[in-house]
Amino acid sequence: MTMAQAAMAEVSQFAVSYAFSILGAIILIIAGFIVAGAAERGIYKALMRLPAFDDTLSAFLSKVARYAILILVGVTVLAQFGVQTASIIAALGAVGLAVGLALQGTLQNIAAGIMLLVLKPFRTGEYVEANDITGTIRSIGLFATEMKTVDGLYVLAPNSALWNTAVTNYSRNAQRRNDLVIGIGYNDDIERAEKVMLDLAAKDGRVLRDPEPATFVSELGDSAVGVTLRYWTATPDWLSTRHALTKATKQAFDANGISIPFPQRDVHYLPVATGAEVAKGKDKPASSARSKPTRQAAGK
Question: Where does the Mechanosensitive ion channel MscS domain start and stop, copy by copy (predicted)?
Answer without folding.
Answer: 106-172
